[in-house]
Known about the structure:
Elements: E1 5-9, H1 15-24, E2 31-35, H2 36-42, H3 44-52, E3 56-63, H4 67-79, E4 95-99, H5 104-121, E5 127-131, H6 143-156, E6 161-163, H7 166-176, E7 181-184, H8 203-208, E8 213-216, H9 218-221, H10 226-245
Parallel strand pairs: 1-2, 1-8, 2-3, 3-4, 4-5, 5-6, 6-7, 7-8
Helix pairs in contact: 4-5, 6-7
Bound molecules: cytidine-5'-monophosphate (C5P).
Cytidine-5'-monophosphate (C5P) is lined by residues 9, 11, 35, 131, 134-135, 163, 185-186, 195, 197, 215-219.
Amino acid sequence: MSKAQLILALDLETFEEARLLIDALADAVEIFKVGSQMFTAYGPFITRYLQSKGKKVFLDLKFHDIPNTVASAVKSVVGLSVSPTKDLDFAPLFMLTVHTAGGKEMLEAAAKAAQTQAKALGVARPLIVGVTVLTSDVQDAGTQERVLQRARLARESGLDGVVASVEEAALIRRELGQDFLIVTPGIRPADASLNDQKRVATPQAAILQGSNFLVVGRPIIQAASPREAAIKILEDIKITCHSRESGNP
Ligand code: C5P
């Protein structure tokens, strides 16, 4: 399995806050998640800012609608990979989310639209991951089975992976194999506050359970020094991946 990576969730109010954070972390963080808050306020202005800095953008809009509407939205997301000016070093859109509760037809339409539009525009196809069950939901006896079912559906429908909590990561990894991506929010360093997340884990636990991408928002953006908080998590990730590779978790 490839090395786990940090995704910083840019859940902020203003472009100026985001710009300061992106610039302060430019040499440390590779992947930034733009969610509904920022994208609703700033649209492609925020994604293009990141792309023009060579950053990978995870656009987390959790599409859930009729298949045709989701396919059209995915097409628009792929369009964000096209550089507005020819001479710019511009990173293609890296990853996007759809909601697995939308069902097979919707998920297949999303996967197909991404493939077709990327080919038509001559850009790399973004990865598509399916949201399973939100990590802020309380877990009940059926959660694991529901998440696994949705992960299977995501794979059958041509998605690259799922968003799931650390509590389901090991099960998904075991059942769906090494190539299926697992993106895990609800990451909390041992000393951080839980906020509204219920199913949380440390970076180390998430990696050991099989997660490929760790989504972290408030523990970094609300830290006294976001830079130090991010660097600390990146170190935890590095140490854990290294000891896992040397068979020494
Ligand atoms: O601030 P915090 O680290 O809790 O941020 C978690 C991020 O992950 C948020 O942007 C949230 O939208 C996202 N997320 C989540 N649960 C999911 C999918 C995404 O918490 N199942």
